[in-house]
Amino acid sequence: MTEDELRANWLERGFSFETGNLELEKGVSNAVHENQDELFVNGNGKTEVTLEGKTFQLKRNQELFIPAKCKHSIKNIGTRNSKIYYGYKQLK
After folding, report:
1. 3-90 adopts what CATH topology?
2. What residue spans define the domains of the chain?
3. Sign of the dihedral through C-alpha 41, 64, 12, 61
4. What is the pLDDT of residues 11-35, one digit of tens each?
5. What values do phi and psi take at 62, rounded to 5?
6. What is the DSSP string of 29-40?
7. Cβ(41)–Cβ(92) under 8 Å?
8. Which of 10, 66, 80, 82 has the fewest C-beta atoms under 10 angstroms from its C-beta?
């Protein structure tokens, strides 16, 4: 799926769409979004994700759904910076 297709898909599903750069060995630690669901895609590189204490690696272009109130960490464990896509959907 291209970036434009991913953007269109997320917007259709009610999510925002942002791009970013996840620096080598950096990331987000123990984040919680009280009133928002999140989507995350690793565009390249290797990403380690921990959801509620369970750790796993995301494959390239694999979409991850993070429900509101879920404690999560995301870390770049590759050999270079990674392009990432993320978006949020406000709960009602």
Report:
1. Jelly Rolls (2.60.120)
2. 3-90
3. positive
4. 999 999 999 999 988 889 999 999 9
5. -80, 130
6. EEE--SSEEEEE
7. no
8. 80
Q: What is the pLDDT of residue 36?
A: 97
CA dist., res. 50 & res. 75, Å (int): 9
C-alpha distance from residue 80 to each of 22, 24, 32, 40 (Å): 9, 6, 26, 18
pLDDT in tens, 47-75: 999 999 999 999 889 999 999 999 999 99
Could you tell me how far CA 48 lies from the centroid of its own chain? 11
- What gap in Å lies between CA 34 and CA 69, rounded to an integer? 5
Q: What is the pLDDT of residue 59?
A: 87
Q: How many CB atoms lie under 10 A from the CB of residue 69?
A: 13
Q: What sign results for the dihedral spanned by CA atoms 24, 58, 5, 69?
A: negative
Q: Is the CB of residue 37 less than 8 Å from the CB of residue 91?
A: yes
